[in-house]
Write a structure and sequence with these properties.
The protein is mainly α. The protein contains four helices and no strands.
């Protein structure tokens, strides 16, 4: 298969939208951590401490998701440059790495969503009893 400039360019909107979604998750969790931290300072509740620890773990995953998505984006741009200078073999390898990075980022996103869902179900347990 011949790699053209338009193929890596197709990743631009996908990666950009993915990064926007990751950033929104990051901002929401950061705001929640600040809120829970304030409540913890007032009550010193061990349940709040556990929630903050889980949120810290999720924040770390989101940071990794964002970093790997940025690497994927950068590699897609490098691929386009390599195609431009007609270095086809290297462009194919770099583009493959870019796709792999995007898959890793999306896998981390899936893990973070699973943690989020688990945390919500634990939170709702006391309501449904």
């Amino acid at each position: 298969m011949e790699l053209s400039l338009s193929i890596p360019a197709l990743l631009f909107p996908a990666i950009s939208l993915t990064m926007l979604a990751y950033n929104a998750r990051y901002l929401a969790i950061a705001a929640l951590i600040r809120q829970l931290h304030q409540k913890f300072k007032e009550t010193e509740s061990s349940a709040l401490e556990l929630q903050v620890k889980q949120l810290r773990k999720r924040l770390s995953i989101i940071k990794s998701m964002q970093a790997i998505a940025i690497i994927s984006f950068l590699l897609a741009v490098i691929t386009m440059f390599l195609i431009y200078i007609e270095s086809t073999m290297v462009a194919n390898i770099v583009f493959g790495i870019s796709l792999l990075a995007l898959m890793i980022s999306l896998t981390l996103s899936l893990i973070e969503v699973q943690l989020s869902t688990k945390a919500l179900s634990i939170q709702l347990e006391d309501i449904s009893k």
